Amino acid sequence: MKYLYVAASPEVNHEDRRMVSSRLASEFGLPVREMEIPAIDFAWDRGRQQYSSIGVLEMALRLCPDDAGKMLAVTGRDLFVPVLTFVFGQAQLGGRVGVCSLARLRQEFYGLAPNRELLVERAAKEALHETGHLFGLLHCSDPGCAMSLATNVRQIDTKQAAFCAGCRARVERVTQGVSV
User: Fold this and answer.
1) What is the full per-residue pLDDT of the chain (180 aa) written as tens digits?
2) How far, in Å, are 89, 139, 148, 162, 178 from residue 50 at the CA level?
3) Catalytic residue of the set 27, 34, 130, 172
């Protein structure tokens, strides 16, 4: 049997990893396993003062267990790709690995007081979004769908932590009767 893995880097606390795992298990209806991955310090770009999400994806692919159908890495570090200022996450469309960052989902990133409830909600949405890409879902035109494109945290806040009916149907077709 293949599993959906949630792999957290050391700065992600167990509670956050557990929350992401629980949400993905619920939404995808698949067995989820958790694991730790090494620190992503190797991906640090001094000029950008951020971490390369591409480097993290490459590491995740190397560390992906044999019994993993898909793996979502979760980090607390701020990520980027060369053509964008930052990314909340990145995933291989229809591939094995993705990554999501909690950094810009935290109120503290914006100089505001911590808000655990808001972090949990945002993290659930971003984890669903990146994992949706792993299962072949593209960006959705429904602004309330977890698969809608978000280029800022306000757009994440307007989404639901769930797929729209069309994206839900696509997920069910891909996962129904199939081990990841």
Assistant:
1) 589 999 999 999 999 999 999 999 999 989 999 999 999 999 999 999 999 999 999 999 999 999 999 999 999 999 999 999 999 999 999 999 999 999 999 999 999 999 999 999 999 999 999 999 999 999 999 999 999 999 999 999 999 999 999 999 999 998 875 544
2) 13, 25, 24, 29, 37
3) 130
CB 32 within 8 A of CB 4: yes
Q: Where are the domains of the chain?
A: 3-175
Q: Please give the C-alpha separations between residue 17 and each of 37, 46, 92, in angstroms, as whole numbers.
A: 12, 27, 21
Start-to-end CA span in the chain (Å): 8
Structure token pair of residue 87: 């990314």
Strand 32-36's sheet: what is its strand order? 32-36, 3-8, 68-75, 97-101, 89-91
Which tokens sit at 105? Answer: 């989902």
Q: Is 36 a catalytic residue?
A: no
What are the C-alpha distances in Å from 15 to residues 12, 38, 51? Answer: 8, 18, 23
The neighbouring-strand residues paired with 90 are 99
Please tell me the CATH code under which domain 3-175 is placed. Answer: 3.40.390.10
